[in-house]
Amino acid sequence: RDLHLSLRRQRQMCIRDSLKKMQIIYPYWRLQYKIKCRSTENELSNWLGYSEMKRNQPIAIIAREQISGFGQNSSSWFSPKGGIWLSAAYPIFSQKFSSEIFSLSLAIKLCQMLRKENIKVNLKWPNDIFFDSKKLIGFLPRVLTRGKEIIYVRIGLGMNVLNKTPSEGISLAKVLRTKNISEYYWTAKILKAFHDSIDCNDRKEYVIQEANKFLTKSVLPKGFSPNEWKIKDVDSNGNLRIYNQTKEKVLTRF
């Protein structure tokens, strides 16, 4: 138990040090590191239930391994050692925050983060980051409100780094063809991208423009055959427009 406690503290400090090395002013993150847990989403919900969300202080739980992680529509989330598995919440306390483009604002910041490292990724609408035709990152966004005021937004996120992946996924190690990768560095980069996604939320036109720049048109949402449907674009409300020979459909995120 003492060894696990020491390891958790060491890894929390490594992530904090990585955030500081970015040399940009960002809020002070409250972090928890788990060696193993059932789900970081459940852990985050429990944490939020026990402590009041402080203004200007985001929180995150990172796990080395999840045994019962889940994604969209409660699908199982393969989360072995070697990946980055985290859940984070960011305080908003605003009526002006645009929840309809929150998923896209995070997606574009993740794409920008990876492309700055010369990793050519694309957005699979609405919340997956693909390298070629395989998933590198998936995330589950949520918005929590009190009346008309958004109190905080939260995400559950998984990134394949050094771990084995299902056939539909790909790891960063395979993309870069090296195992010399720092999980702490990439965890800090993800938390920075989350912050940046909040920061650009009031620039709707910019978010939509960037989403269309990164949008993959070769991978349709589940339930739509590429033999029948084609992707047109992301519309001004963040919805996906698809079409065939006779009609057009608008798919909404929520």
Structural features, described:
There is one protein chain. The chain is of the alpha+beta class and 254 residues long. The chain has six helices and ten strands; from the N terminus they run H-E-H-E-E-H-E-E-E-E-H-H-H-E-E-E. It has helices spanning 2-21, 40-50, 102-115, 172-176, 183-199, 204-214; strands spanning 30-34, 59-63, 84-94, 122-124, 128-131, 134-146, 149-159, 230-234, 240-243, 248-251. The chain has a seven-stranded mixed beta sheet with strand order 1-2-3-7-6-5-4, sandwiched between helices. Strands 8-9-10 form a three-stranded antiparallel beta sheet. A hairpin with a 2-residue loop joins strand 6 (134-146) and strand 7 (149-159). Helix 1 crosses helix 5. The longest helix is centred in the N-terminal third of the chain and has 20 residues, at 2-21. The model has no long low-confidence stretch (mean pLDDT 90).
